TrEMBL record:
Coiled coil: none annotated. Residues 20-479 form the Aldehyde dehydrogenase domain. One of its GO terms (biological process) is gamma-aminobutyric acid catabolic process. CDD domains: ALDH_F5_SSADH_GabD. This is NAD-dependent aldehyde dehydrogenase. Keywords: Oxidoreductase. GO terms for molecular function: succinate-semialdehyde dehydrogenase (NAD+) activity. The active site is at E257. InterPro entries: Ald_DH/histidinol_DH (IPR016161), Ald_DH_C (IPR016163), Ald_DH_CS_CYS (IPR016160), Ald_DH_CS_GLU (IPR029510), Ald_DH_N (IPR016162), Aldehyde_DH_dom (IPR015590), Aldehyde_DH_Superfamily (IPR050740), Succ_semiAld_DH (IPR010102). GO terms for cellular component: cytosol. Belongs to the aldehyde dehydrogenase family. It holds the Pfam family Aldedh.
Length: 485
């Protein structure tokens, strides 16, 4: 059983209109610990009817919430931030239990998630409009920004807390109520956030969490209901495209954070120690299960062998195990399907001539634990070149020239994060400009922060989260033309 100092953070009901509710059908969904498959708790398996109730509650809450002053909304967000940080240890334990990431990483995610609440508590007060010099005598032109309306947020399991706050904090700050549908694997962080939101003083209906039995039915209601004015989704490109199509009928605004296929390029002139440290942070964080994880390591000919040897040393030091039981750097993968995808990528690469430098198979701990893996001599015809592996596998590609590296890096339909290591200032500027990506890490493997805009180009998505840009996605521009002056 989970040993929480605040047991009220472990909830087994969904949160709609300020109340903790069961599914109308009475059905429940098991939430299990991926480290050992054990049952943590069961949550309501909700569908379209409960989703509609939540949307209606949010719609009723919209008027009074947007009518509050920015400072009043800011104060509630600030309290939420403080409550999240005060509960950091409990929230981290809950997250490790439902998601599997090492406890230290879970604590880091709580702080990262909370940072968006703090940031947007501040930004709430800085939603400025504009005045425009009139085009005719006797007129005045004023531009105001207004909250877009009810927001639906559909979030993934890899960051069970931070993907919720990254969407909801700017929405709430702007004056929009939210209906969140967390991933079925990880609803507990979302429900704990709802408990803390209630304590922070969000009025009923402003923040709602639906736990879905059938994500398709809930997703359909969230995208078809005309009262929802905006969908913010993080997840697979496949589901993102489906939701985008479903939103077309009511012309909803969209923010989409979809898949990536991040290149991580190491040039001959790179600082090798820094490149190895960056590759470790980018590749093996969350056991390789993030959309900005290095998916393809492109290494220049002259340092290929040296880089491979140093990376292997670093990977050999990673300890694999259950996050609640010790100091491990690698947890289990989220489920069996994830393990099978990793196995398929390795098998495809090896069948076409790649070499296993390290790992390559399920870990002796069993379950969904996997050995941290390095593959060398990987080429663009192999599965890891085209698809996101989402696991602890570092495939090493070889390149000769800068031009070839950029071509390989951009040879994908995705465009979320890219990384490269070089100490040549001319190359740094050339490559930064040539990369078709929303985020570029230059001599840096960790790029996520609440102060900078996170988001992708091409099929990686629409919109930006975090930073001064993040609140814009939840605002509409209204132009007031005043005559007769
Ligand atoms: P992953 O492969 O990372 O699990 P998904 O895109 O399947 O990515 O899941 C991300 C989120 O999308 C989860 O909350 C999941 O429940 C939700 N989801 C999956 N299918 C649908 C759907 N048809 N409609 C709405 N939400 C969906």
């Amino acid at each position: 059983m989970l040993d929480l100092s605040d047991s009220a953070l472990l909830r087994d009901h969904a949160y709609i209109n300020g109340s903790w509710v069961a599914a109308q059908s009475g059905e429940r969904l098991a939430v299990t610990n991926p480290a050992d498959g054990s049952l943590i708790i069961r949550v309501p398996a909700m569908g379209a009817a409960e989703t509609r109730q939540a949307i209606e509650a949010a719609d009723r809450a919209w008027g009074p919430w947007k009518a509050k002053t920015a400072k009043e909304r800011s104060a509630v967000l600030r309290r939420w931030f403080e409550l999240i940080m005060a509960a950091q240890n409990d929230l981290a334990k809950l997250m490790t239990a439902e998601q599997g990431k090492p406890l230290a990483e879970a604590k880091g995610e709580v702080a990262y998630g909370a940072s968006f609440v703090e940031w947007f508590a501040e930004e709430a007060k800085r939603v400025y409009g504009d005045t425009i010099p009139e085009h005719m005598p006797g007129r005045r032109i004023v531009v105001v920004k207004e909250p877009i309306g009810v927001v639906a947020a559909i979030t993934p399991w890899n960051f069970p807390l931070a993907m919720i706050t990254r969407k909801c904090a700017p929405a709430l700050a702007a004056g929009c109520p939210v209906v969140v549908k967390p991933a079925e694997d990880t609803p507990l962080s979302a429900l704990a956030l709802a408990e803390l939101a209630e304590r922070a003083g969000f009025p009923p209906g402003v923040f709602n969490v639906i736990t879905a039995g059938d994500p398709k039915a809930v997703g359909f209601e969230l995208t078809a209901n005309p009262k929802v004015r905006k969908l913010s989704f993080t997840g697979s490109t496949e589901v993102g495209k489906l939701l985008m199509a479903q939103c077309a009928a009511t012309v909803k605004k969209l923010s989409l954070e979809l898949g990536g296929n991040a290149p991580f390029m190491v040039f001959d002139d790179a600082d090798l120690d820094a490149a190895v440290a960056g590759a470790m942070a980018s590749k093996y964080r969350n056991t390789g299960q993030t959309c900005v994880c290095a998916n393809r390591l492109l290494v220049q000919d002259g340092i290929y062998d040296a880089f491979t040897a140093r990376l292997a040393e670093a990977v050999a030091a990673l300890k694999v195990g259950p996050g609640l039981e010790g100091d491990f750097q690698q947890g289990p993968l989220i489920n069996e399907e994830a393990v099978r995808k990793v196995e398929r990528h390795i098998a495809d690469a090896v069948a076409k001539g790649a070499r296993v430098v390290m790992g390559g198979k399920r870990h002796a701990r069993g379950g969904t634990f996997f050995e941290p893996t390095i593959l060398a001599d990987v080429t663009p015809d192999m599965a890891p070149a085209r698809e996101e592996t989402f696991g602890p596998v570092a495939p090493l590609f070889r390149f000769k020239t800068e031009e070839e590296a950029v071509r390989m890096a951009n040879d994908t339909e995705f465009g979320l994060a890219a990384y490269f290591y070089s100490r040549d200032v001319g190359r740094v500027w050339r490559v930064s400009r040539a990369l078709e990506y929303g985020i570029v890490g230059i001599n840096e493997g960790l790029i996520s922060t609440e102060v900078a805009p996170f988001g992708g180009v091409k099929e990686s998505g629409l919109g930006r989260e975090g930073s001064k840009y993040g609140i814009e996605d939840f605002l509409e521009v209204k132009y007031l033309c005043m005559g007769g002056i």
